[in-house]
Amino acid sequence: MYCEKCKRIVETNICPACGSKKIREPETGDLCFLTEQDYVSSGILEDILKQEGVPFLKKEVLGAGLSFRVGPMLDRSRFYVPFEHMQKALPLLEDLFAVPAEEAEQLTE
Ligand SMILES: [Zn+2]
């Protein structure tokens, strides 16, 4: 399922991230929240997505005004990927930034 408000893929009928009840089936072309990364990781991820031909939208969390004051190194970026590309983007992300919690649990069982 898909939360229209924060653009996350969620498992429940109420979004665990923002509490929104505007949950529906994800559709082709829906931008989905992929991850939030710091300045350095954002650069790496951006390169990999480009290499793999995955279209994405990158948004600075603080925005231009604030990041000018605190410096770009402290800003974080959120990545959004069209729903139909999530299946390709997620494994890239996992390869890049360690094993996700669910998989780690399975490994220890
Ligand atoms: Zn939400």
Explain what this protein looks like in three dimensions.
This protein has about 110 residues and is α+β, with helices and mostly antiparallel strands. It has a single domain, classed as Alpha-Beta Plaits (2-Layer Sandwich), CATH 3.30.70. The two termini are about 30 Å apart. Strands 3-5-4 form a 3-stranded antiparallel β-sheet. It has a two-stranded antiparallel ribbon with strand order 1-2. The chain has helices spanning about 40-50, 65-70, 85-95, 100-109, and strands at about 1-5, 25, 30-40, 55-60, 75-80. It contains 4 helices and 5 strands, in the order βββαβαβαα. Zinc ion binds near residues 6, 15, 17 and 20. Zinc ion binds near residues 5 and 20.
